[in-house]
Amino acid sequence: CLTATELDMEQKRFKVGLAPETLRKTYLGELKAGDKVNLERASEIGGRNSGHFVQGHVDGVGIVADRWIDEDSLFYKIQLESALMPYVVPKGFIAIDGTSLTVCEVDMAANTFTFMLVEYTQKKIIVPAKLKGDKVNIEVDVLGKYSHTAVQAFTQRIEALEAKVKSLEEQLANQ
Asked: In the record, which residues are listed under signal peptide (predicted)?
């Protein structure tokens, strides 16, 4: 999620500020002049979103582990740090280099997931230029992050209640 800090409409150029957090979480600091990036406008609240909630806040960097063609579709397998894998679910969304896509398969043991690009999408974004070993910026499913946080808070309360019940049961048994 970057903000344009300078716009040059004549030369069709713009500048953005890269905060330290952005540089830590992305590979943007490795880009050179002329490298291609994917740009998407922010979604309007209440507008169509195809069921995907993309904020533009990169969570980490993945590595292209494999890619292959199946008829007119291009498939990718991405290696991801284990800390982000709980938020990657089959048929959930994931943003790859700013493009919102649907996850196909997830292999939690290998810390990998797959997605595919239909022919139309391949012509409109930068991801098809990514080869095995290349880096991709990853934004995981924000709804998954919210759900995970809510379940963790609930789980801690349940565990505390279970400990209290056990303590009370032991007290009653000892009377």
From this structure: none
**Six-digit token string for 80:** 């991801």
Measuring CA to CA, which residue among 66, 79, 67, 65 is closest to residue 112?
A: 79
Ordered alpha helix ranges (H), the chain: 20-25, 119-122, 142-173
Q: Which two tokens stand for residue 138?
A: 């990853």
* pLDDT tens-digit map of 4-25: 788 888 988 888 777 777 787 7
CATH code, residues 4-140: 2.40.30.20
Q: Is 112 helix (H, G, I), strand (E, B) or coil?
A: strand
Domain residue ranges of the chain, discontinuous segments joined by +: 4-140, 142-174
**What angle (nearest 5°) sits at the alpha carbon of residue 136, between those of residues 111 and 107?**
15
Tokens 């979480």 found at: 25
pLDDT digits (tens, 9 = 90+) for 129-155: 999 999 999 999 888 888 888 888 888
> Are the CB atoms for 94 and 53 separated by under 8 Å?
no
Q: What phi and psi, each to the nearest 5 degrees, are found at residue 172?
A: -65, -40
